[in-house]
Amino acid sequence: METNLCVAGFGGQGVMTLGKFLATATCDSTDKNVTFFPSYGAEQRGGTANCFVVISDEAVGAPLGDVMDDLIVMNGPSLNRFIKTLKPGGTLFINSSIVSEETGRTDIKVVKAPVTEMALEMGNSKVLNIIMLGVYIGFTGVVSPEVVWDTIEHKLGKKPKLLPLNKEAFEKGLEMGRSQR
Amino acid sequence: MSRVFMKGCEAIAEAAVRAGCRFFAGYPITPQNEIPEYFARRMPEVSGTFVQGESEVASISMVYGAASAGTRAMTSSSSPGIALKSEGISYCAAARIPMVYSNISRGGPGVGSIQPAQMDYLQATKASGNGGFEMMVFAPASVQEAVDMTYKAFDYADRDRNPVLILADGVIGTMMEPVVLPEMKTEEEINEIKNAKKVWSCTGHKLDYKNRAWIEPGHWLTSDMQRANEEAEKLYESWKADVMVEEYETEDAEVVITAYGISARIAKSAVNILRKEGIKAGLIRPITLHPFPYDSFDKLDYKKVKAVLDVEMSIPAQFVQDVEIAIKDRCPIHTCLCSGGNIMSRESIIEAVRKIYS
Amino acid sequence: MEQIYARTKTIQEDKVSGFCPGCMHGTVMKLIGEVLEEMDLVDKAVCTLGIGCCGLQMDYIAYDNITSPHGRACAVATGIKRSNPDSLVFTYQGDGDFASIGLAESVSAANRGENISVIFINNGIYGMTGGQMAPTTLVGMKASTAPNGRDPKEHGYPMHMCEVLNELTAPVYLERTSCNTPGNVVKTKKAIRKAFQNQLDGKGFSMVEVVTSCPTNWGMDALKALDYIEENMLPEFPLGVIRDR
After folding, report:
1. What is the pTM of this model?
2. Chain-chain contact of B204 with C43 (C-beta, under 8 angstroms)
3. Contact flag B344-A23 (C-beta cutoff 8 Å)
4. In chain C, what are the domain boundaries?
5. Can you tell me the mean pLDDT for A57-78?
6. Would the CB atoms of B69 and C83 count as touching at under 8 Å?
7. What is the pLDDT of residues C209-242, one digit of tens each?
8. Taking the CB of the first residue and of the last residue of chain C, which one, N or C, has fewer CB atoms within 10 A?
9. Strand arrangement of the beta sheet that strand B245-248 belongs to
10. Do C149 and C163 touch, CB atoms closer than 8 A?
11. By the CB < 8 Å criterion, does A21 face chain B?
């Protein structure tokens, strides 16, 4: 069993952090093989950012596969760029606040989450990635939510003030993901 | 031992620290900036030295100096920066100074692309600088291997008094993967290693012309120079015993893929898929690129092998030149290539094998 | 009879210098050796040699030495000193090495305030390779790569390394001396001693620029070369302490 996930968006949307939290949680809590591979533009700010997470029972071949089982898309350009890599029957997670739902495909599942709006409602636009991570975990159950939260908590350890907000964001996401199963 | 989730570059740096590396000098270049950055944080914790050199040229010279003073020392760069380091690498090889360096290689030539590539094969294995010196070259295919090789590289370097190269690429350098880190060498062990080099290292000696440390990256007398070359040649010959290779499903293979580093890892997963389809594919993965595992190709049953498929992230192909030497016209060689920062696709390898098979 | 002077033991007894007649590398090499002995530092000394005639002394000196890639002596010295702070590390470099190909390494080591000592030999010309133009070649002075003499329009002006480094904050000691008279030789020795003492005191970067001659490539005999230093080199490269902190 191998899951290939691509997370794509604008630089600054926390795309890398999302992928890294998921991969780290998998490493820490399971004996599965897991890889995280980031792909940046040359710019330090803005531009596109995407990363690839592979979770597998066997040794991981390509950390950047040709075909994705799951695709998380945080902005419009990323949808256009990556939609063709999603396998038939695969799941697309979209930030429905700013991404058009027109995928041009009928052979995939679509999980919608208006994470930009949700984050703004919560008073911090930066937590959209944590909400989306919750959505992904809630929908797929690929790793237990408790383990993912432990990882987030550990990584944010230096900024404890942010923990309650992130906890709320993660749980809202989980709920939204679970509800669309 | 518990595993930790680490980025290739950072894991390489941590492995070096654990191997007793106490001097690092480097210059920023993508995609290996996490190596100097990691050392900058880590070295003060172990009473080691990190210097951001004014250039690659200066950084390798600093390493040449530190290693000449008996300290386990390392530098790192990516393709264009490695080219600049060739001066100092050649000096280390000439003066027989042990040091380790890594090339987290990217697209080329010129400034090339900042994305991963395997376009420094010939430079790494045949001519990393002037004067025909040779080095052991390791090609990791996972973060774990990068860690293990870096750790061991310091032992090889000290054993041979010669530079050792870890030739990784931007994928291995920037990806994160679970690793089990090797044991941290103790202060006593590190001092012992340094003291063992006292005889020849530049740390100050009692006034005596014969016993002074004399680091010579060249010789005035042609007879001395030739003798140094001959001694080096003996060393290079001895590496035949150090060949490391992975032979995967090659026994009954009808199509043998050969690849190194990241390409080999992707190729291995292609072999698994092809085998499920009933296609008898196999893989020869040189782990040491120099010395090259020519023998593995002699072991193949050429009555069965339809062709060898060379898979590498370089256009034109470079690794294939050693494969040609190894195959000695016993079967056709096909290539499956990409470059420019594009990463080898498993599908294209599978496609290429199917084509040969049918 | 009481012996009041002997050759420094830091130079091998049985070696005959390969330096040209009138060359001052031998003089400076002797001074360095005497200072090392007088300060009881021979056991700690590590000399990083530049490429060119300055490197010839590797064969004569009896203390630790390493030949650096051309121009990189300050970088090599950085590596040695940082990994072995107890050593006394000094570079010995010519003008092509220190001020041309190694300009980045020299200025950067000075700017970092590396705790090393630099002995910089300025004779205004490339010696070993046969009289090519150096960054310190005087205006009008002929060189094999400037056959009509250095022309400021084409080649710019001689580089004053003491003054260049004096623009930096970190260096602690910069002095320009010469070896053209017995008095100047004594001053050069004092300067070398000071540069070494600064290092022992952990003060940081010191440089002694020694204005010397190259009779062979200047195309004159040794005595004329002394006059040439006095009349031509020293007006361009005035002697004295540029900085002492």
Report:
1. 0.96
2. yes
3. no
4. 25-244
5. 93
6. yes
7. 999 999 999 999 999 999 999 999 999 999 999 9
8. N
9. B245-248, B281-286, B255-258, B307-312, B333-337
10. no
11. no
Chains C and A make contact, 3+ CB pairs within 8 Å: no
Q: How many residue pairs from chains B and C have C-beta atoms closer than 8 A?
A: 142
User: What pLDDT score was predicted for residue A101?
Assistant: 77
Are the beta carbons of C64 and B73 separated by less than 8 Å? no
Q: Does C105 touch chain B (CB under 8 A)?
A: yes
- Give the pLDDT confidence of B104-116 residue by residue, as tens digits: 999 999 999 999 9
> What per-residue confidence (pLDDT) applies to A42?
58
DSSP string, C5-43: ----TTB-TT----SPTT-SHHHHHHHHHHHHHHTT-GG
**Rounded to the nearest 10 degrees, what angle do helices B56-68 and C73-83 cross at?**
50
- Supply the pLDDT for residue A104: 87
ipTM reported for the complex, 2 dp:
0.96
Nearest Cβ partner for B114 among A36, A42, A59:
A42
B22 has a chain A CB within 8 A of its CB: no
Look-up of token digits 């043998």: B256
pLDDT of residue A41: 64
| pLDDT, tens digit (0-9, with 9 covering 90-100), for B154-192 | 999 999 999 999 999 999 999 999 999 999 999 999 999
Residue A65 has pLDDT above 90, yes or no: no
Q: Do C75 and B58 touch (CB under 8 A)?
A: yes
pLDDT for residue B283: 98
pLDDT single digits (tens) C10-48: 998 888 888 999 999 999 999 999 999 999 999 999 999
The arrangement of strands across the sheet holding C173-178 comes to B214-215, C64-67, C45-49, C88-94, C117-122, C206-211, C173-178, C240-244
Residues 6+ apart with CB under 8 A from A157: none
Cβ within 8 Å, pair B171-A63 = yes
Q: Which of A29, A61, A16 is nearest to A146 (CA)?
A: A29
Reported as a pLDDT band with limits 50, 70 and 90, residue A66 is confident
Give B-chain residues touching C10 at CB under 8 angstroms. 207
**Positions of CATH 3.40.50.920 in chain B:** 246-357
- Hey, what CATH class is B246-357 in? alpha beta
Q: According to the CATH classification, is domain C25-244 in 3.90.230.10?
A: no
Q: Is B344 in the A-facing interface, judged by CB distances under 8 Å?
A: yes
> Which pLDDT band, with edges at 50, 70 and 90, does C72 fall under?
very high
User: Which chains have 3+ CB pairs within 8 A of A?
Assistant: B
Contact C46 B69 (CB under 8 A): yes
B266, amino acid identity: I
Q: How far apart are CA A115 and CA B232, in angstroms?
A: 63
Residue of C nearest to B74 (CA): C79
Q: How far is B25 from chain C (nearest CA, A)?
A: 8
Q: Using CB atoms, list chains with 3+ pairs below 8 Å to chain C.
A: B
Yes or no, beta carbons of B61 and C68 under 8 Å apart? yes
In the stretch 43-82 of chain A, residues with CB closer than 8 A to chain B read 58-67
Rounded Cα gap, residues A89 and A98, in angstroms = 24
A62, B266: Cβ pair inside 8 Å? yes
- Give per-residue burial for C32-65: e unless 16+ CB within 10 Å, then b: bbbbbeebebbebbbbbbbbbbbbbbbebbbbbb
B4-195: CATH superfamily = Thiamin diphosphate (ThDP)-binding fold, Pyr/PP domains (3.40.50.970)
Question: What domains, with CATH codes, occur in chain A?
Answer: 2-179 (3.40.920.10)
Cα B168 to its chain centre, rounded Å, is 6
Report yes or no: B111 at the A interface, CB cutoff 8 Å: no
| Percent of chain B surpassing pLDDT 70 | 100
Q: What is the pLDDT of residues B129-147, one digit of tens each?
A: 999 999 999 999 999 999 9
Which part of chain B has CATH 3.40.50.970? 4-195
